Amino acid sequence: MHTPEKNQIRALALYQIIGGILGIALTVWVMFSGEMVIDQTALRIGLFAGGLYIFSILCGRMLFRNLRRGLVLSIINQVLQVVYFSFGAYGFQYVAGLRIGVGVDMVEGWIFKFRLALSSFHFSIGTDLGQKFIGINLVALFLIFWIERLLEKAPR
After folding, report:
1. First-to-last CA distance in the chain?
2. What's the predicted TM-score (pTM) here?
């Protein structure tokens, strides 16, 4: 691969590694800041979030070791971040890096929203938060297309 592609791969790797490290740090900070009761459910969700952030770090590391496998894993990592939602008792949001999101909040009608976030995680099942929204992370969507282009140029 040529130097511009190598620089793009380095940038992607660093983005995923930094996003994962930031996500782990924020998860630990939220769980142990004293504002939250850590019960078994919170611990499980925290471990699930940590696992996703570790996956992001591993995707970044894999780009340096095995380019094709790293790019495929990076696509999977970004696909997990494209759609975020919360409907009644079910919700999911995972961001390892940056989210520039556009979506629809349906609580008081159809309100279009624009949201920014750094590494963040939300998962709920069986807990009605009174939220109804769905959104798309434009950064993750862009990265999927960009990674696919890099994958086409990667040596076999």
Report:
1. 11
2. 0.91
User: Alpha-carbon Rg of the chain, whole angstroms?
Assistant: 17
Domain map (residue ranges) of the chain: 3-153
The torsion defined by the Cα of 26, 29, 30 and 36, in degrees rounded to 10, comes to 170
Residue 56: beta bridge partners? none
User: What whole-number distance in Å separates Cα of residue 62 and Cα of residue 68?
Assistant: 9
pLDDT by residue (tens digit) across 118-151?
A: 999 988 887 777 788 999 999 999 999 999 999 9
Q: In 20-33, which positions are buried (b, 16+ CB within 10 angstroms) versus exposed (e)? A: bbbbbebbeeebee
Average pLDDT, the chain: 92
What is the predicted pLDDT for the residue at 9?
Answer: 96
Q: Hey, which residues does 118 pair with through a beta bridge?
A: 98
